[in-house]
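Item description
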Amino acid sequence: MFESMRKSAMRLVLVQAAAGAIAGAVAWLAFGRAAGMAALAGAFIGLLGSLFTVAGLLRVCSGATPGQMLAMLLVGEAAKLVVCAVGFAVCIIVLDLVFLGLLAGFVATMLGYWAGLLPAVLGEGSPPAAPAAN
């Protein structure tokens, strides 16, 4: 189960990275360099936040209870929120990047997040059925 979870987590991150790169390229071609850079920065924020969540999940050992797994998920999600808030603040206040571009890149990675979860939701990531008792 844990190996399947690790594979799903890595696929999720790769799909997010691809979605963010595509959003940055489209914004760059359609609206120029400033929008493209902002979209790539927004995608990076989303990707970095997801990496914190995934890192929290991957720290769970194979003998963990559901409560321990939930606790690690919540810690990872809290870290994700902090990373995203700080990332947006730095990009808007310090770097003065285009807000809509930032948002577009971030949204692209969130859509990539859900697209990366689809195989697990549709059954690929589900654990094998227990053998029938004789």
